[in-house]
Amino acid sequence: MARATQTRNGEKPQDAIALLKQDHRTVEQLFEQFEETEDGEGIPIAQRVCQLLTIHTQIEEEILYPAAKESLSSEGEEEGEMVYEAEVEHASAKDLIAKIEDMTEQDEQYNATVKVLSEYIKHHVKEEEGEMFPALRKSELDLKEIGQRLLERKQQLMTAMGVTEEESDAAPARKRATSKSRSGTKSQAASRAKSKSSGRAARH
Ligand SMILES: [Fe+2]
Ligand SMILES: [Fe+2]
Question: Which of 16, 69, 137, 165 could form a disulfide with 147 if both were Cys (CB 3.0 to 4.6 A apart)?
């Protein structure tokens, strides 16, 4: 029987697909934030994206993909093949991540490399969410149990890598809500001042 692990922000554990989709949204949001930054100031955001993607790809490879391979291969060659494709895409993404992690802000290719990683991840996420996840929903897999294992492993890796769970990562809806409001209002300046984090998270 699986233990009922709570996430750090107290939410109930989700099924595998919900958890991974939430990671995808977080990373998309961070890539968007990176695009809005001026030269050099996006580096902490890019570094965080790299750390989160490293953890995300690792938990998928350790837990989800082996289960998916087994389950989907029994349903047909094409279904099984999509997991291998995803693994190859992870390998290329990891090369880009390693490149970014080795770069400094002086590097002329810094922004371009983050952009290429962003496009690459967008494509990969589209395939996971458009093809692999729907196939897994239809399969026999116990997605709740896999979600539990993904969550536990994710938290373990975050601790090992010293990666914190930021408030802004856990609340993707807030950005959508604030981006609808008119920019340049006094309340935004006030909320920026109130923000306890580095200030980047409060950008609008
Ligand atoms: Fe993913
Ligand atoms: Fe993936």
Answer: 16
Residues 139 and 200 grouped into a single domain = no
State pLDDT tens for residues 55-95: 999 999 999 999 999 999 887 777 789 999 999 999 999 99
Q: Assess contact for 63 and 70: CB atoms under 8 A.
A: no
Cβ atoms of 103 and 81 within 8 Å: the answer is no
Ligand of minimum distance to the alpha carbon of 129: 1
Decide if 83 contacts 68 (C-beta within 8 A): yes
The helix/strand count (H/E) of the chain reads as 10, 0
- Regarding whether 110 and 62 lie in a shared domain, the answer is yes
Ligand lying closest to the C-alpha of residue 83: 2
Domain that holds residue 141: 16-165
Q: Are 139 and 190 part of one and the same domain?
A: no
Q: Cβ distance 174 to 181 under 8 Å? A: no
Mean pLDDT of the chain: 82
- Using the mean position of ligand 1's atoms as its centre, give its distance from the Cα of residue 18 in Å: 11
| Residues, CB-to-ion distance under 5 Å, ligand 2 | 60
Kindly give the distance from the C-alpha atom of residue 193 to the centroid of ligand 1, in angstroms, as a whole number.
34
Q: How far is the CA of 102 from the centre of ligand 2 (A)?
A: 22
